[in-house]
Amino acid sequence: MADEKSDNQNLTNKVELKTHLDSIQKEIYLFLKPLGFKKKGRTFNKQTEDGIYQVINIQSGRYEFGDKYVIPGFRENLYGKFTVNLGVMVKEIYELENHNKPKDIYQDYDCQIRERLPHLTIKQDHWWTISDDNNKTAKEVIDGLSSHGLDWLDNFENRDKICKNLGTSEVGSPRAKLDVALIELLRNRTKAEKLFQEYYDNIEIKNGHKEYVKGLANRLGVNLTD
To answer: Taking the chain (226 residues) in consecutive chunks of 10 residues, what is each chunk's mean pLDDT?
Structure first.
């Protein structure tokens, strides 16, 4: 009977959490919809240039089983909490690298440029607790998007800005130059090939990524010299 009661309690909690998160999301969408974002599930998309999509995703913490899952200060139980992920998806990179097919809506994990909203607002990771104070929580997220999130997304709203800002931005990943090269392939092939070569030359020889880049370049008709 105890296990059955526990299962019923967990089910009730899940239903309540979903209801509260739905309410929070509704307020966020009321803010984003006039800005041109569309919604599917817990993800919002806005196309800012042909093939450039801004992505905002509400990620809820998973229910983790087992009393050994939580390691304080290292691995916390995030069930009953949520955070907000930001990203920018560039169609040609998405399709060229992995032969991906277009989607109706893109997720944050599809994006080449990614950030988490609290990293911009308070410079650290943060997960909001899902409670019945939905208006306050939604306002915190909306305020964060207004003050930091949307500006961050707009740094990459078109290819010119991406190519200019990606390498110098705080979110510039080690492979930023490769991403810019893939964008430039359709704009300035000479520049793209130069970026490809520079990126390739800076990869450690024993790193398997070097072979991947060589294969990608061959497939795209870019000649790299060793």
So the answer is: 43 81 97 98 98 97 57 63 97 86 94 96 95 93 98 97 80 81 95 95 86 94 94
Q: Is 225 exposed, middle or buried (0-12, 13-18, 19+ CB in 10 A)?
A: exposed
Q: Is 8 helix (H, G, I), strand (E, B) or coil?
A: helix
> Tokens at residue 82, please?
């949520």
DSSP state of 35: G
What confidence score (pLDDT) does residue 153 get? Answer: 98
Task: Give the residue ranges of DSSP H helices in 65-168.
Answer: 91-98, 117-121, 134-144, 150-154, 159-165
What sign has the CA pseudo-torsion 157, 161, 162, 167?
negative
Could you give the 3-state DSSP secondary structure of residue 84? strand
d(CA 59, CA 43): 9
Euclidean distance between the first and the last CA atom of the chain, given in angstroms as a whole number = 68
Sign of CA dihedral 35, 41, 43, 47: negative
pTM to 2 decimals? 0.85
CA 60 – CA 80 distance, rounded (Å): 7
Q: Where are the domains of the chain?
A: 2-157, 174-219
Single out the residue of 153, 139, 118 nearest to residue 36, CA to CA. Answer: 153
> Bridge partners of 154?
none
